[in-house]
Amino acid sequence: MNSGFALAGRTANEISAVVEAGVRSGALPAGAALPPIRTAATQLGVSPATVAAAYQALRQRGIAESAGRQGTRVRPRPAVAPARGQFRLEVPDGVLDLATGGPDPRLLPDVGPGLARIAATSVPTGYAAAAGFPPLFDAARAALQRDGVDASELAVTGGALDGIERLLNAHMLPGDRVAVEDPGWANLLDLVAALGLRPVPVPVDESGPDPQRLADALRAGARAFVLTSRAQNPTGASVTADRASELRAVLETHADVLVIEDDHAAELSVQPLFHLGGTTRAWGFVRSVSKPYGPDLRLAVVAGDATSIGRLTGRQRLGTGWVSLVLQRLVADMWADPQVASAVSAASAQYERRRSALVLALRSAGLSVTGRTGLNVWVAVPDETVAVARLREAGYAVAPGALYRLATPPAIRITISSLSTDDVPALASATAAAVGGHSLISGV
């Protein structure tokens, strides 16, 4: 327990509120351990059941997590913002940022021409006209169908995570189990915790999730499965044709499971798409535009079965209502612009050169690396803290794997967005030195 924090309260609500306030103020940092239940109960003069209920509420709100024999601790990225802002990896001046995970701003297409075109064109205004922009739906449907995705039912959401959250809410209840990739997207793991769902880890290799471990997760009661189609964050994995066939064989025996596929890289990935949707009755395929076109373009198209899309759009009407029609028009315009398509294609090729060069250099140095496509490379290490600290001293900021792992071994994530191919030899040498010269067994 942090010396600047004192647990207090007489009821479960009061105790959980005090802990939440401690997280917001910074008195309880990420990873801080909460007192054991019986110790806290004696200190506060309440029953152990009261403390247990408070801790359960904190876990359900995504603020705390169970640490096994180590008790309960604050999550690495709790679902409450501290007074000084969101939890972020700090990158000191003079250190190359290979930790953030976003696209290279220099490779994003220019939105200016598209904004000018839609500004010069009249557009219907008012609530009735805002639900969906037909040209956006037409373009999305055509692109998805080329990739083998049934796009007869479509919705538009405020980005990938918004789409995934709405699909989960359409089918799941707090306490339900969800099969998730391990390692996997940190934001998704945080979302699952914040929704009160229980993650069941499914290990990932370069070809995608492990089919046997998925079968184990489903037998253990997982009612949903969320996976990344390609350019998986953090490992750079991409589901292959053979792996997709194996995963479909597992899912065919669990027809009631909700399957959600995240295709966040879309046009940036050099790997083809192998789609799982339709194997089960409930499914959703989410394709967002932030990585290829710009992080501020908070839009994703979601295809799925009629029930899932109907529930998603129905609930959307009761909240945000719709995604900005201006944004929908801008994305539709960019999808139709040959110059934008050329810029995205050039960015994809540039990312491929950077990633391939780094993977080759790291493997030549004897390191265990995954990264078939996308913006990230996953490097196995004996000790994440040591590796991250040594690389920072050498001038490189990388992300610790603990942000993305549930039960898989230690690793670091290196984002190649800010990397040039000229930087690769020095970075590979520094990474090998940071790992300590160990020759690690291949695999995640």
From TrEMBL:
<dbReference type="InterPro" id="IPR015421">
    <property type="entry name" value="PyrdxlP-dep_Trfase_major"/>
</dbReference>
<keyword id="KW-0238">DNA-binding</keyword>
<protein>
    <submittedName>
        <fullName>GntR family transcriptional regulator</fullName>
    </submittedName>
</protein>
<keyword id="KW-0804">Transcription</keyword>
<dbReference type="GO" id="GO:0003677">
    <property type="term" value="F:DNA binding"/>
</dbReference>
<feature type="domain" description="HTH gntR-type">
    <location>
        <begin position="9"/>
        <end position="77"/>
    </location>
</feature>
<dbReference type="InterPro" id="IPR004839">
    <property type="entry name" value="Aminotransferase_I/II_large"/>
</dbReference>
<dbReference type="InterPro" id="IPR036390">
    <property type="entry name" value="WH_DNA-bd_sf"/>
</dbReference>
<dbReference type="InterPro" id="IPR015424">
    <property type="entry name" value="PyrdxlP-dep_Trfase"/>
</dbReference>
<dbReference type="InterPro" id="IPR000524">
    <property type="entry name" value="Tscrpt_reg_HTH_GntR"/>
</dbReference>
<dbReference type="InterPro" id="IPR051446">
    <property type="entry name" value="HTH_trans_reg/aminotransferase"/>
</dbReference>
<keyword id="KW-0805">Transcription regulation</keyword>
<dbReference type="Pfam" id="PF00392">
    <property type="entry name" value="GntR"/>
</dbReference>
<keyword id="KW-0663">Pyridoxal phosphate</keyword>
<dbReference type="InterPro" id="IPR036388">
    <property type="entry name" value="WH-like_DNA-bd_sf"/>
</dbReference>
<comment type="similarity">
    <text>In the C-terminal section; belongs to the class-I pyridoxal-phosphate-dependent aminotransferase family.</text>
</comment>
<dbReference type="Pfam" id="PF00155">
    <property type="entry name" value="Aminotran_1_2"/>
</dbReference>
<dbReference type="GO" id="GO:0030170">
    <property type="term" value="F:pyridoxal phosphate binding"/>
</dbReference>
<dbReference type="GO" id="GO:0003700">
    <property type="term" value="F:DNA-binding transcription factor activity"/>
</dbReference>
